[in-house]
Amino acid sequence: MISTETxxxxxxxxxxxxxxxxxxxxxxxxxxxxxxxLSLGASPVMAHAADEVEEMxxxxxxxxxxxxxxxxxxxxxxxxxxxxxxARTIPIVFDPVGAGATRxxxxxxxxxxxxxxxxxxxxxxxxxxxxxxxxxxxxxxxxGAAVDDAQGAARQLAHQWQCVxxxxxxxxxxxxxxxxxxxxNGHAMMPRVTGLGCTASALVGAFCAVNDQPLTAAAxxxxxxxxxxxxxxxxxxxxxxxxxxxxxxxxxxxxEEVERRLRVRG
Length: 266
Fold this sequence. Notes:
Elements: H1 4-17, E1 20-24, H2 30-40, E2 43-46, H3 53-57, E3 62-66, H4 72-88, E4 92-95, H5 103-113, E5 120-124, H6 125-131, H7 151-161, E6 164-168, E7 172-175, E8 180-183, H8 196-210, H9 214-233, H10 239-252, H11 255-261, E9 264-265
Parallel strand pairs: 1-2, 1-3, 3-4, 4-5, 5-6
Antiparallel strand pairs: 6-7, 7-8, 8-9
GO molecular function, one term: magnesium ion binding
Pathway: Cofactor biosynthesis; thiamine diphosphate biosynthesis; 4-methyl-5-(2-phosphoethyl)-thiazole from 5-(2-hydroxyethyl)-4-methylthiazole: step 1/1
Function: Catalyzes the phosphorylation of the hydroxyl group of 4-methyl-5-beta-hydroxyethylthiazole (THZ).
């Protein structure tokens, strides 16, 4: 089970080891996710050129693939990086942004996932349901479904791909197909800031880099971001200041705040 002790151990490991997290992510969130990783203590690199992704993966402790601003060029780079990461047995975190919105996105996700077993798939309810083959109504990259609606799809995907699946929402669901954990941390203002879901995927990569138990690592990452969202909301007047305050909260997070706020049920 997740506890203050287990979560804080991972945070200390990230701060001590500064794992290099290779992100092939979208233009909208690069700055936010890089700063979030740096603030927590990890070392981010945003490299998506097909000419260098395999070499960069060779240096990394985790690979995070996020299809947010998708084009065929990006797909080609991802298709090189994913097998390279699998060959090195480093964690692969896959974020299927907007899956289900267009055929290109959904088919690209399934093709990329088929190249190597992902370690963690993190998405919103609609994205996870779309990957599982459900007919869902999406709103671009926003979910048209609730987390509860995606429980079956999350378990199905976890079994199908032998991985951990995270469904983000008001409460985050984390499953390996058998265990089912809920993280109740977070704040209602967080969905008003673009890229915090993508930030969650990047943080999952950092935690997976220091913890070889993906279910636990993913729950730790979601708890950390949720706690920092709560802390940030206390000093923010709106989404703009919240975004900055989340970065500050990741940097200044203490064991005492984790112990006071951590809310995980399973």
